[in-house]
Amino acid sequence: MPYHEHNAERMRPVLLGRVAQGQAVALISDAGTPLVSDPGFKLVRQAIAEGLRIQMLPGASAPIAALVLSGLPSDRFLFAGFLDSKTVARRRELAELAGLRATLIFFESAQRLAASLGDMAAELGQRPAAVARELTKMYEEVRHGSLGELAAHYTAAGPPKGEIVVVIGPPLPAVAASAEDLDASLKAALAHLSLRDAASEVAEALGLKRRDVYARALELAGPSGK
To answer: Are 189 and 198 in contact (CB under 8 A)?
Structure first.
């Protein structure tokens, strides 16, 4: 029996009615665990509200698989699902999470990956991160690096294929940014921002003087700089 976002309102009473009559109903989700972008959680929520017994048999979980493969701290983590597709809203969400001392896990679309990584580098700084795609499948791939390095890679390489999970390490101890970190952050920011805006955001993210960052941005942009 199909159960999806287009028929969920109609099907929930039917399915829960069968459970109430003593039948066993199994929900099988092709969206994987934990039912992200899937109406299954609403079915579970209503079943709980009606006092019906629920059991869970875990299936493949991309967030947990990516966390393990990332090699990043797993003692405390937050799975935040998909960020907003709009740049301003996405950066606002990232800014709200910036101070959380935990590994962050996100889903992202291939087309938005490079821009999102650039926003992550600008809002979260040069944290270690990993981009995992096609987990448990034939073309599984996990790429490690700083957020700036990963943003630069996918800006140059273009959107990867498959379903993507981004894992970001917790905030780093306050240390002076290296020249490599500065350049990686600027290149990522310059891919989608004006020179002035890129310099401002990178300076704030890395705790550097804006005029110094702006001078370096001019050098990286070259004669055709924005």
So the answer is: yes
DSSP 31-50: T-TT-TTSTHHHHHHHHHHT
Give the C-alpha separation, 97 to 100, whole Å.
5
Query: Where do the structural domains in the chain lie, given as residue ranges?
Result: 8-49, 67-168, 179-224
AA identity, residue 158: G
Q: Whole-prediction pTM value?
A: 0.72
Element (H, E) at 64: helix 62-70
Sign of torsion over alpha carbons 29, 33, 38, 43? positive
| Cα–Cα distance, 58 to 47 (Å, whole number) | 18
Q: Looking at per-residue confidence, does 59 or 168 come out higher?
A: 168
CA distance linking residue 13 with residue 189, whole number of Å:
49
Is 87:115 a contact under the CB 8 Å cutoff?
A: yes
For domain 67-168, the CATH class is alpha beta
